[in-house]
Amino acid sequence: MRLHVNIFDTDKAQFTILPDVIALPDAEDDPSLKRNSDLEFHYESSPFAFWITRRSEPDAQPLFDTRTSSLPSTPIPPIIASDNSTALDGFPLVFEDQYLQLTSALPLGANIYGLGEVLSSSGFRRDIGTDGGVGTIQTLWARDSPDPINQNVYGSHPIYLEHRYNQTTRHSQSHGVFHFGAAGSDILLLTPPSSPVSVIEYRLLGGTLDFYFFSGPSPQKVIEQYGDLIGHPTWLPAWGFGFQLSRWGYSDVNDTRDQVVKMREANIPLEVMWNDIDLYHAIRDFTTDPVSFPAEEVRAFIDELTANQQHYIPIVDAAIPILVNDSDVYDPYSRGTELDVFLKNPDGSQYLGQVWPGYTVFPDWFANNTQSFWTEALRNWFQSGVNYSGIWLDMNEPSSFCIGSCGTGANLTAATIPTQFFPGTPGNLVTDYPEGYNATIWGPSGNITINGTLTFGNNSAANALSKRGLGAAAESGVNLNTPPYAIHNADGILSTHTVSTNATHANRVVELDVHNVWGLMEEKATHLALLDIHPGKRPFLISRSTFPSSGKWTGHWLGDNISKWQYMYLSIQGVLQFQLYQIPFVGADTCGFQGNTDEELCNRWMQLSAFLPFYRNHNVRSALSQEPYRWDSVANASRTAISVRYSLLPYWYTLFANASLHGSPPIRALFFEFPDEPELFAVDRQYLIGRDLLVTPVLTPNVSSVDGIFPGQGRVVWRDWYTQEVVNASISTNTTLGAPLGHINVHIRDGSAILLHEEPAYTIAQTRQGPYSLLVAQAADGYAFGTAYIDDGETVPPTPNTTLTMKARKGAVTIYPNGDYWITQRLHIVTVLGAAQTLPTEVTVDGVQTAAWQYDSHVYRLVIKALNLDLNKPHSVEWK
């Protein structure tokens, strides 16, 4: 259930996001909601203020409260912006053309999650400060920067989830708050001195105060309600869950092919091979280098992948290079100029930034012909021999290496990229040793050798506010590049390393207003283009810059991370954030992108990423190679982890079907499932896959054990995934688990029923063709439940599908199909954990006694084998 509050200017001159960018559903036309909704709106007219309460808890602190009487009378000292300007003193409501401010009270110690994209030093739970301290200044301004901590980066997501715990009732409720706007902004979480409350303050450079409130009351319901508003995630092809390999630095098509061969020789499953900008001719989008990547050889290579049921994905950068002389031929630029689809300067000339290929232009997604231009460019590339299965969108904040239209008036033939921008060129290699390097222990290759030796680290302003219209390009005297309040953009000037804020789109829209949605609009255009190029097939996209509703079109990787242990930990926080943002298919560059990794770090990271949605190993061309076959221990750990991942494919696939159908998060913070356990509210070194699997990775070097908490406060039984033994877990505190190199702890929750692939194979297609098995972990009362969504794995819904419902009670497991997709694979094995504490005397399958079963009293495990069950029919397995 949601409530919408919009404070806007009566002239409606402020910029608002257009429906053809993000189409939000209309409010429900049901008058009874004003009387029955759990969310209630209240306001005071003079001075204007509003607050939101729960009808079910009228005496509780409001969920959102802008009243002066609710806010501290003594604010913290002024927070200085990047240009030394400050906001208005205190916490007033401000609505000016280029500065909006709104403040709400929060409970002291509030549990706030979201407000990103960010790598937060405080963890998944945001810091709200203590006694006069500013905990968080979250700036929303899309920025190309290699994963700094506590700064704005690639995406902008003004949504937070607050989780409130009542110490008296020991019960929690969650709600969500979403600001629907694209303007650059600061969002502050702070606690004034000696204050009974904390506050959240919004400082916006434009737009309106357009808020949506979600009632929850569970964390999962908040996330689903947000998805109902902005749109549920796109449907993914099944092959997208396979392991994927990339590198900026595969120098030619043979080098790329060699990786595929070596992965198969090492028997490490590889589903998708990627190429970075090495593929391009003159670093130009939609091209192949005629020497290193000849089109016919690229076509032959991709044909080889296709024949082996593997896939290929190339990169597409945001900027389009211009022609450098009269003899230059580059159709995407010529065609785009003909169709008038590129961003302009205020005087109507083309806006010329500078990126990898030199001076460049940028598609204007608001122009009439841009979709057809983009589809045509992608189709021509596909037909030229780069017959890709998906697309990788990069640099789409969008990134530009100079401030302003630096190519305007320049010698266009002399556009070159400074060496320092291009890693891997002579004189610009990554020469730093990996994080824990020790010359007396490490092998001569510079990569760690694990022989039982622990190696890591054994080396030695109010008066600045003035009224100015944001109708922007049409008004005189407006400086679009320096708004009167400077948000805390870590690059300082808003136009640094991106398109300038005075660049002009079609219909006189200016970049200042729409900067944060550039990536979203490219994602939508690319998704629609792929539907045109691959009719009926689900588009597969991974993109860097994101905005609310990006998940309808794309997945996301967490950007240019670093080969350090801290960044492996931060990847969990990043994945949890994007579950809230309705972009659930997300992952990090495994083993790290920047810098040099080592064997131990890559070993642990390949295991962790196998239990996260998007699974790709990728690094920068100037660093050491880190393909998993390069170390025996990493190869072994990868094979084991990928085998578990592929066996779990029906579970992964079902979780993402539920995300697409209902907005349910596939990866969950522990408190999502156990909301009344305060000891879990800050946990972000562990996570759940769905409701049933608990992952506890090793995130530090030089250890052979790991500490982790087991949710449920002793009321839930957890079993080791590998041995299926019950864990003797401490209640509400950490338990120490064995974790030798090559092992990641995974535990299964009681009450779960999980359909598995019995025989994980080298590719997803081969795995899906094999038989199923069923794993049931019964609770003490015999209960277990699970579903499995099955379809062809590639067709755009609506498409035939069948859902299997698996239920257990004491002495029985039943399976019921419902749907119109014909399942050809058979069920071969049913394993029931906690089945009985004494040896069964009889087992029947669909009423017929069978002798093909085993019982292990050590783990109370009943295994029924030699089954050949048709899953298009209901079945019952019983024992006594």
UniProtKB/TrEMBL annotation:
GO-annotated molecular function: carbohydrate binding; hydrolase activity, hydrolyzing O-glycosyl compounds
Q: Which UniProt keywords apply?
A: Glycoprotein, Glycosidase, Hydrolase, Signal
Q: Where is the Glycosyl hydrolase family 31 C-terminal domain?
A: 663-754
Q: What Pfam families does UniProt report for this protein, alphabetically?
A: Glyco_hydro_31_2nd, Glyco_hydro_31_3rd
Biological process according to GO: carbohydrate metabolic process
Q: Where is the Glycoside hydrolase family 31 TIM barrel domain?
A: 233-655
Q: Which PANTHER family match?
A: ALPHA-GLUCOSIDASE, P-TYPE DOMAIN-CONTAINING PROTEIN
The family this protein is said to belong to: Belongs to the glycosyl hydrolase 31 family.
Protein name as it appears in the record: Glycosyl hydrolases family 31-domain-containing protein
- Supply the source organism for this entry: Dichomitus squalens
